[in-house]
Specification:
Blueprint lengths: L2 H4 L6 E8 L6 E5 L12 E2 L4 E8 L2 E9 L2 E3 L7 E3 L5 E7 L3
Length: 98
C-alpha cells in the first residue's frame, strides 16, 4: 500500500459567514482559520445591507469576528462564543467530520 492510499482524506466544507451591517463601508472576516489576517477574507456586500463570505474549512473548532469599518464585532447570528485574550469574546464555529 502506498503512502497516498494510507492517508485519510479530510472532508472540508464550504461555510458562508453573514454579517448584517447596512451602513458599513467595509466588512472583513477575521479568524484563526486565516491567521487573523485582514487581507485574506474581505466580505462582499449584496446591496441589501448583508455582507457575506464563503470559506472552505476542515473539521475543527474555529474562533472568528468581523471587522466592520474598523470595529471588531461578534457574529450576531451565532450565539456560540468564547473569551479571548483581550477580555472580549470571539464567535465560535465547530465543523464536524462528515
Amino acid at each position: 500500500m502506498s503512502n497516498k492510499d494510507s492517508k485519510q482524506s479530510v472532508k472540508r466544507k464550504k461555510v458562508t459567514f453573514i454579517c448584517d451591517a447596512a451602513d458599513a463601508h467595509e466588512v472583513i472576516l477575521m479568524g484563526d482559520f486565516n491567521a487573523w489576517n485582514p487581507k485574506k477574507h474581505p466580505m462582499q456586500h449584496n446591496g441589501n445591507g448583508i455582507w457575506q463570505k464563503s470559506v472552505i474549512l476542515a473539521p475543527g473548532k474555529y474562533e472568528y469576528k468581523f471587522i466592520v469599518d474598523g470595529r471588531w464585532i461578534e457574529d450576531a447570528n451565532n450565539h456560540q462564543s468564547c473569551l479571548n485574550g483581550f477580555g472580549t469574546r470571539n464567535s465560535v464555529i465547530e465543523m464536524e467530520e462528515a
